[in-house]
Design a protein that fits this description.
The structure holds two protein chains of two kinds. Chain A is mainly alpha-helical. Helices cover 67% and strands 0% of the residues of chain A. Classes of the chains: A mainly alpha, B mainly alpha.
């Protein structure tokens, strides 16, 4: 197992703003955030290979725009924002490729889940993923961040630019919709 | 499981069943590092001593300016009041002189006194 480099965000941000140290510092950022961003993206795009591409694009975008990151927000907030944008862009591209309207939900992503070699969930897990995929994009994001990542509403608010109250309401609606989906598909 | 979660979710748990290839994250990190393009960082210049003290110097200069203006104004006012005082004193002195002249009678020269006597004689005639 590779030794984990010490991660001090303030120090890393300073190093990111210096030509001589920025690459090494970004290496530490990748090591620190790649796993949590991977799972966040995976829950959005479902497929492992697609997640790999989106995660790669996320970090490359962050790297090429590193000069614009002044450290006003947390590095995690900035990376999450990029990851979310990249995920949504990817899903929309895939919809266009599959002749699906952009207004339709993301259920098509779950269709190939059973055949995915990197999925070993049972029937109930597939149904849950199908239920989550029927949610509007914002509710999906809120549900995933709250339910799976157990992220605080305040942090979600910074990432999504939505008030805490609206996020709580969004999560509540998402739960209701998932329950209804299970009741209707019993 | 939080209070806000539903019973259905309680049964399902939080593992969605997604997996990754063995050693995926280590491989991903090293491959990504190799593929990162070169970037140019605009390094922030360290502020010079002058840049650091400049606001304080400006502030001190401003206060000095205000102090100087106030002093000039006060000196001006003082000079003006001295002039007025001197003028008033001269006026008062003149008035006092006039008053004493009136009381003691004017000091006439010989010609004026002759004229005055002649006028007096004409009037009495």
């Amino acid at each position: 197992m590779a030794t984990r480099l010490k991660y001090d965000e303030e120090e890393i941000i300073n190093q990111l703003h210096q030509q001589a140290t920025c690459r090494t510092a970004f290496g530490k950022v990748i090591e620190h955030y790649s796993e949590q961003l991977y799972w966040h993206i995976r829950r959005m795009v479902i497929d492992h290979d697609d997640t790999n591409d989106v995660l790669q694009n996320t970090f490359i975008k962050a790297w090429t725009n590193i000069d614009n990151f002044r450290g006003d927000a947390k590095l995690s907030t900035w990376l999450y924002k990029i990851a979310i944008n990249e995920s949504i862009t990817f899903i929309n591209k895939k919809k266009v490729q599959n002749n699906i309207s952009l207004d339709d939900d993301d259920s098509f992503l779950v269709n190939s889940l059973e055949a995915d070699r990197y999925f070993d969930g049972d029937e109930a897990q597939i149904r849950l993923q199908k239920a989550i995929a029927t949610l509007p994009e914002k509710q999906r994001l809120v549900f995933n961040m709250r339910y799976y990542d157990e992220m605080k509403y305040e942090e979600m608010s910074e990432i999504l630019g939505t008030s805490v109250g609206a996020l709580k309401a969004s999560y509540h609606h998402a739960l209701k919709k998932i329950e209804t989906f299970f009741e209707n598909n019993d | 499981m939080k209070k806000e979660d539903s019973k259905i979710l309680e049964k399902l748990g939080k593992d969605p069943g997604f997996k990754v290839p063995d050693n995926y994250f280590n491989d991903f990190n090293s491959k990504l590092m190799e593929s990162l393009p070169e970037v140019t960082i605009t390094e922030e210049e360290k502020p010079t001593m002058w840049v650091k003290v400049r606001p304080f110097v400006y502030l001190a200069a401003m206060f000095a300016g205000v102090w100087l203006m106030m002093n000039i104004f006060t000196i001006g006012q003082k000079a003006k009041s001295n002039q007025t005082e001197a003028k008033n004193k001269t006026e008062i002195d003149n008035k006092v002189q006039k008053k004493s002249d009136l009381q003691n009678g004017p000091i006439m020269n010989y010609e004026d006194s002759v004229k005055a006597n002649l006028e007096k004689d004409n009037i009495s005639k």
